[in-house]
Write a structure and sequence with these properties.
2 copies of one chain form a homodimer.
Chain A lengths: L12 E2 L21 E11 L5 E3 L5 H18 L16 E7 L11 E5 L4 E7 H13 L2 E2 L4 E10 L5 E7 L7 H13 L4 E5 L1 E2 L2 E2 L8 H5 L8 H13 L3 E5 L7 H6 L29 H14 L7 E3 L8 H4 L2 H9 L5 H18 L3 E5 L12 E4 L11 H9 L2 E4 L11 H5 L1 E2 L8 H6 E8 L9 H5 L2 H10 L7 H14 L10 H10 L5 H7 L2 E3 L21 H4 L7 H14 L6 H19 L10 H20 L4 H14 L6 E3 L2 H14 L1
Parallel strand pairs in A: 3-4, 4-6, 9-10, 9-19, 10-13, 14-15, 15-16, 16-17, 17-19
Antiparallel strand pairs in A: 1-18, 2-8, 5-6, 5-8, 7-8, 11-12, 20-21
Keywords (chains A, B): Glycosidase, Hydrolase
Organism (chains A, B): Gelidibacter salicanalis
Protein name (chains A, B): Family 20 glycosylhydrolase
């Protein structure tokens, strides 16, 4: 879960180059990469006569998937299909066949085979879900010449490595409307993610309508909640895409919102519970010693369970520091009476009672890894999130849980809200080189990327989730040997832009924010800056959780910037290559970037000033000055002391966070200036 | 309604410069322009201490509006407010006071006064809806210096000219998900539109879940329909924004979808009814002679009425050509028996019966102007859409209806799907210089922009509605004297980009489509072209309704282009000015554009070709050649015969529609080449 204050480091077993070889030898842009793929001669041409048929009998879900496939293919190719819907029978030139309609769960067979020849595409699978996976792969195979679009001849046999491939979205800290969820569900399906973990409650809000306890949504949501009908709608939408929905109701901690509505359930009498506006770990906690607490959970969960058909049900259980328990004498007395030595033991007492409630409702309880204590039954599911920085050993709780007999899911290493590079997530292997028995291995269900929403709004959430989550999806689906970062990045770029077909805003909202910043002036100078700036990482934006409130502005420059800034890697690589290989001729790419930045401040200066862009002025000016001097030095092959001093002084400034971003080419600029200093 | 085949011309009373003088003398970007506005000394500074209070007692709707106001202001200014929600009491520095909560209807008092001084903003109104209008105006007043944001000192007394200010969205021809509707409702509220006319059924689909007649959504929607819960959600969302929702169930024509589900209601036995995939006027029509038809409508409307609390209920009634009636002997016999001489009389017979059904359900029946016949009771409401091209006289049916005693609403002149200039709509005055009695004037409720969706998808609909509809909103709200087109365009530009705050995609989706067209290559050359190209107008795209099916691709170049192309007007004006004033010195603006286009093909040529961009190649090449030659001629002041011939040949090509767009600078290029020819 979301340890806000403590700075986490990515744990897991980092796959170095030593482990496995890249198996991706083709130029195809499929992601996640299939289990087995062989390119074949031939091409299937996509033209107006293309048709698709589903030969199996019951096919509601796959019918929709096939229709959406046709729409996206039309959108991408501009081809006007004569038949816009799947046909009955076997007459079509894309044929889908499967044995049965799946009920979604961890046992679902998601495998499929796909074969493309000159005049026929066949997708075969055991379940409709497998067939839908085949359609997603087929769409990604779309290629073109100058004159036509086609699918290349191919044979694919595919199945996932892990059965649980999830994305968690926190809708408590910033509410995300149904439309945001739906477009992200579509994107999940496009990269074969199959679990949407819906973090519905937290200190900052309770986001579900409750008819049994209406104060929950009335008093603890600021009016921003899902009606039960909307919940059903989202769950049905996900199911149609082959995605399971796991709700999370976080207890006993992270309970400020619940206690705003029902303070009598709290652990500290007289405390003024209120919806939390800041970020962090807070004290309000359910009282585990009162009968009404369990009565409340019994009634609430009984109401919620029918909305969420999946058998797994997440109760959070994380980051309860027990401060209010310590401050409550009745709770201390209760602990003594029941021989519960620590707050952790008290929480286990609570968890065991909650699990009984859920078991009676035919649910399997899941919780963050704090719930794994010696007394906790192995029927619960452990969601591993903590690593070395939370005092856990290397390997964390995932392997531990599996060995102890728990089903388990990994999120440590996949905290996308930390805004770290795609590479850093991609190279986290959930299992690594640990040796496991078959039973232990089967208990490792998979993993989840976690989108905590302290700093994201509907305007920016897509750019925080995508495209990195597509690479994580590959980690969860593909074989562990698939670890070539450069190849992944090439494919990711293609996959990322095609997600725009689904309405995803991760690319287009950059310009929306920059237009807003400039009050609709020419944004090209800001775009140039945004391509070398990344939002501050690892919770160093919003220090201590109190720089931003939930209703602060999130349309600042940092919100327009994204991880893996577009121009940074090519420039940084060009500099490295230039320095290591320099034979006296100047690298064209290095100069191209330097000159672009050298002239950029000219454009920036023409902008009519306002308080949103002013903080960037010095950065823009410094960067242009440095880039200009370095460019001149590289071309003239001379360099004055004064120029060097100017560069150093400017670099000191650029090396600090500015306006909640870091400039991710500074290191390369420093290298370049040292090189120039030594050389000329 | 949607006369697809017949080419309409804009009717109404065009306001020339002669009528009224522009009253907009300030530099403010308010739209629609208020009734009375006077600028005052002083500035109210927007900083973190800004607070807002609502002093009236019941204020659910206005509380949400005030909260959203704070969010949008934060987004726009980057100011981190200490208080993110309206406060109770009178302590705040923005104070809202109103007398009562309105029930939305044509009698709702929407007026307000707004005053801004150095340290206080007050919004006063009779109803909460008026207060919400005041908040929208206040937001539009936001200004900035280099250091801060502020509202300028001002006093506004405002009220609408017309009580019915609508936008119709056709969700039948292309379904529009709830998210699309919600963001457009937000945009409507931002420009004080107050009626959402929801065209829910047509030949191409029946878009509402019916529990009484489930085949309607099951068989006649391709799975694309609103559940009843979604309908309620949209209606509630609109109500919270002060917007009424008028549903339209189009009968007896435009009935292919209904008859696909229930063919027994049709007028032609044995006809194979099917969801229509093309555009146009089709024959399937309900049978007005059968009792089951009225039983069906009685039951269907009884089911639908509770979903739509507004008293007005639209039954379409347009474009019934009666072909299937003519072909049915029983219907002919029925006409004879009931002395109904024409199909129009038969339709009136039908309409009168339908009106009784609706009256019994406490609804007021509204229909397109074909329903206005001598026998039709004046309790119905006439929606005027036809003009000169449909055989009606100048002035059409609006004034006629008002004089005959019907309430009436104008859409002729506001057919935004015709993709004509904002100016052409803006200058249509619903009443013009006609003299009316007070009673007649009161019966003219207002107008509606109509977004028929033959050629729009969720990807493109926003750019077809906005920003032009904001100017139409001003026509409906503001005084008739507000007719300065240049000033309107200046304000419109500002209003348009701020709509992006609401998630509107009218600006950002251009690049999405261009990225899709190029398979994610550099789109700058295509952007340059898109700024001088407009999609074909007045239904000349999709000739005869059969070039495109409903599921054809709508992510072509034409879909990236918009009306009032960005570079066209400034270039065309610069050319006119240059030609009329030329004293031998070359106009810098003319040259700037010519040089931009002259070099643009260099960029275009670097694009890897594909079938979506290939159709533009010749256009791009021709344009660059012409622009290069003209630029050279203007600078060198010489011009060869060969060059002239090349230009003429190229202009002939550019003067034709290419890839469903027209190049709207061709006329200016022709002028320029003639000028050059004569001069040099």
């Amino acid at each position: 879960m979301n340890k806000f204050i403590i700075i986490l480091s990515i744990f897991g077993f980092t796959l170095g180059n030593a482990i496995g070889q890249n198996q991706v030898t083709s130029n195809l842009n499929v992601m996640p990469w299939p289990k087995e793929l062989s390119e074949q001669p031939g091409r299937f041409h996509i033209d107006s006569t293309m048709t698709i048929s589903i030969t199996s009998e019951t096919h509601g879900r796959v019918h929709m998937a096939a229709t959406n496939f046709l729409r996206r293919l039309s959108m991408r190719t501009g081809v006007f299909l004569e038949e816009g819907f799947p046909l009955p029978g076997k007459s079509a030139n894309i044929q889908i066949a499967f044995n049965k309609v799946a009920t979604l769960g961890v046992e679902t067979d998601e495998s499929y085979t796909l074969e493309v020849t000159d005049d026929l595409v066949t997708i075969s699978s055991n379940t409709d879900v497998g067939a839908m996976n085949g359609l997603q792969t087929l769409l990604q195979l779309t290629q073109n010449t100058a004159d036509s679009y086609y699918f290349p001849g191919i044979k694919i046999t595919d199945a996932p490595r892990f059965v649980w491939r999830g994305l968690m979205i926190d809708v408590a800290r910033h509410f995300q409307p149904v439309g945001v969820l739906k477009r992200n569900l579509e994107a999940m399906a496009a990269v074969k993610l199959n679990v949407f973990h819906w973090h519905l409650t937290d200190d900052q809000g309770f986001r579900v309508e409750s008819k049994v306890y209406p104060k929950l949504h009335e008093l603890a949501s600021d009016g921003l909640y899902y009606t039960q009908e909307q919940i059903k709608d989202v769950v049905a939408y996900a199911d149609a895409l082959g995605i399971r929905v796991i709700p999370e109701f976080d207890v006993p901690g992270h309970a400020s919102a619940i206690l705003t509505a029902y303070p009598e359930l709290g652990s500290k009498d007289g405390y003024e519970y209120a919806i939390e506006r800041y970020s962090g770990v807070f004290d309000p906690t359910l009282n585990p010693t009162k009968a009404i607490t369990y009565e409340f959970l019994q009634n609430l969960f009984s109401e919620m369970v029918p909305l969420f058909p999946d058998v797994y049900f997440h109760i959070g259980g994380d980051e309860n520091e027990g401060k209010h328990w310590d401050e409550n004498q009745d709770i201390q007395a209760f602990k003594n009476k029941h021989h519960l030595k620590t707050n952790h033991e008290l929480q286990t007492y609570f968890n065991i009672k909650v699990e009984k409630i859920l078991n009676n409702l035919d649910k399997k309880m899941m919780g963050w890894d704090e719930i794994m204590t010696p007394n906790m039954p192995t029927t619960t599911v452990i969601h591993s999130w903590r690593g070395a920085n939370e005092g856990l050993g290397q390997g964390g709780s995932l392997i531990d849980a599996a060995k102890k007999g728990y089903q388990t899911v990994l999120s440590n290493g996949f905290y996308i809200d930390r805004l770290q590079s795609v590479e850093s997530h991609y190279l986290v292997d959930p299992i690594g080189e640990v040796t496991l028995t078959d039973a232990e291995r089967r208990r490792i269900l998979g993993g989840e990327a976690t989108m905590w929403s302290e700093l994201v709004t509907p305007m920016t959430i897509d750019s925080r989730i995508w495209p990195r989550t597509a690479a994580i999806a590959e980690r969860f689906w593909s074989q562990p040997e698939i670890t070539d970062v450069a190849n992944m990045k090439k494919r990711l770029q293609q996959v990322s832009f095609t997600l725009e077909e689904l309405g995803l805003t991760h690319i287009k909202n950059r310009d929306v924010i920059l237009r807003s910043m400039t009050n609709n002036q020419d944004i090209s100078a800001l775009i140039t800056l945004s391509k070398i700036c990344e939002p501050l990482k690892v919770y160093s934006r919003n220090k201590d959780g109190i720089e931003y409130k939930t209703y602060s502005s999130f349309t600042l420059f940092a919100d327009a910037c994204v991880v893996d800034a577009e121009d940074a890697e090519p420039f940084n690589k060009a500099v490295d290559s230039y320095i290591s290989n320099s034979n006296g001729t100047t690298d064209k790419n290095v100069l191209m970037y330097l000159n672009k930045w050298a002239t950029n401040h000219e454009g920036f200066k023409t902008l009519s000033k306002n308080p949103k862009i002013s903080p960037l002025y010095e950065m823009s000016e410094n960067l242009s000055e440095i880039a200009g001097l370095l460019s001149k030095a590289l071309e003239a092959k001379t360099f004055s002391k004064v120029e060097l001093e100017t560069i150093k002084k400017n670099l000191d400034v650029l090396n600090q966070p500015i306006a909640d971003v870091e400039i991710v080419i500074v290191e390369a600029l420093i290298k370049l200036s040292r090189f120039v200093e030594n050389r000329y």
